[in-house]
Design a protein that fits this description.
The protein has about 200 residues and is an all-alpha fold. Helices cover about 50% and strands about 0% of the residues. The longest helix has 26 residues.
Length: about 200
Amino acid sequence: MCTYAQRITPDATWNTKMTNKSNRPFFCYVTPSDIAYILSLIKNRKDMWDQTKRIQENPEARHEKRAKPLFSTGEGKRRESGKTVWNNDGLEFFYTAERNWMEVYNSKEQFSALVNGWEIWEPNNKTRKDPIRTKWRREEQDNNKKSGEEKRPWWENEEQGYASDLELNAEYDLDKITCDKVVQELGEYEEEEAG
């Protein structure tokens, strides 16, 4: 998620989203379609990346046949508006991945596990997660901040994330470990505010 799904949107936009809509995890902004798209891109180019790595490690591997993308060659096809250069296997992979992720998002139990796992997980380099880290705030702090803000344009007040037309529930419950982490982060936040 930090390496690929985060790149769907620039880091500055993620920072703004995560700050303005505090207490909402990253997965409330990333759709199953986004995740399926990223997985499709990775699977499409995996053989090529593996071959490049083999060549770097073993120069004798340069002589093997050049690997091609799995789902899209783009050769012999003229680009046309509204038509994809992906083959049927690629489209099937994408739509299957999207359907599987929609099931996760629509299952409160699975989506809760995903959100809780995300909140607890920390990469080795913790700064990689910073743009998409949940900004935890106490509710009264959010209300006070909103009342002091100037009037924003309507398009900034629009809800981002999931709408009913996507047929996604995206409901979740935070477990005890995640709640303990949130309390710890709120304590550190209050110390920074006081200092």
